[in-house]
Design brief:
Number of domains of chain A: 1
Helix content of chain B: over 70%
Radius of gyration of chain B: 18 Å
Number of helices of chain A: 3
Structural class of chain A: mainly alpha
Largest sheet of chain A: none
Largest sheet of chain B: none
Order of helices and strands of chain B: HHHH
Number of helices of chain B: 4
Number of domains of chain B: 1
Strand content of chain A: under 5%
Oligomer: heterodimer
Distance between the termini of chain A: 62 Å
Structural class of chain B: mainly alpha
Distance between the termini of chain B: 50 Å
Number of strands of chain B: 0
Shape of chain B: elongated
Largest interface: A-B, 24 and 25 residues
Shape of chain A: elongated
């Protein structure tokens, strides 16, 4: 009905967070004047993974809702919002399916962060062990 | 069926991203993330649908399956179009920019 709205909102929040973190990273780089370690992936880039998964997924899901006639180009844009009974069902779906979707995507992103951390650690260790010259 | 098509698209685009060395200049990272994101969302949708329909979930009507397949393929086409628009707007190789400037000159 409108489950994609939950993930779309999270995508918006993650997009803003990505921009803010990116600016912070840029300004700290200018202040210190040192390059970020080559083996460390900037957090803004990691946030970009979440943003792309959520925004891309939401866009494709929104298309599915248009396909099924659940989203219309005229007010109130969601057919379920036309009457109170359907609206209640829609909010219930957003609270269950929508939140479930957002939680699973975020959990998978958490897994990606964990894998990335392990790879970064290994790369840093290998860089330290590498003989200078 | 839509979930299945989306997962297949996610797997194929991930393999392309992994094997193609031009992943950065072709912005190939966007596609797998987009299709995996959609696949995860449809997976959650499928779980809720299964809870509601039980075994009937696995025996859909042929017409519904065809419609879902058509939808899945349309979703893949839309995903590719979104990627293409991002690629042309960001224009990492400067192809669009140089083509426009050459025409103007």
């Amino acid at each position: 009905m409108a489950c994609f709205i939950v993930t779309a909102v999270e995508a918006g929040v993650s997009a803003i967070a990505t921009k803010v973190v990116e600016k912070k990273e840029q300004s700290s780089l200018e202040k210190t004047g040192t390059e970020v370690e080559a083996v460390k992936v900037p957090f803004s880039r990691k946030l970009g993974w979440l943003r792309n998964m959520l925004a891309g997924g939401s866009a494709l899901l929104a298309f599915e809702h248009i396909w099924h006639g659940e989203v219309t180009p005229w007010f109130p844009f969601l057919t379920a919002a036309a009457n109170a009974e359907d609206a209640a069902e829609m909010f219930h779906e957003m609270g269950t399916v929508g939140v479930g979707m957002a939680a699973l995507v975020t959990a998978v992103w958490g897994g990606m962060l964990a894998v990335s951390a392990v790879i970064e650690k290994r790369a840093a260790k290998a860089a330290k062990e590498e003989p200078e010259g | 069926m839509t979930l299945l098509v989306s997962v297949l698209a996610a797997v194929i685009t991930t393999v392309v991203w992994y094997t193609d060395n031009r992943r950065s200049e072709l912005k190939l990272g966007i596609l797998p993330l987009m299709f995996w994101g959609a696949s995860l969302m449809w997976f959650v949708d499928a779980i809720f649908e299964y809870v509601e329909l039980k075994d009937a979930y696995f025996t859909p009507e042929p017409l519904d399956m065809l419609n879902d397949l058509f939808l899945g393929l349309s979703v893949v086409a839309l995903g590719l179009v979104i990627w293409l628009v991002i690629l042309l707007v960001k224009d990492p190789r400067g192809v669009v920019r140089s083509a426009i400037l050459r025409k103007k000159a």
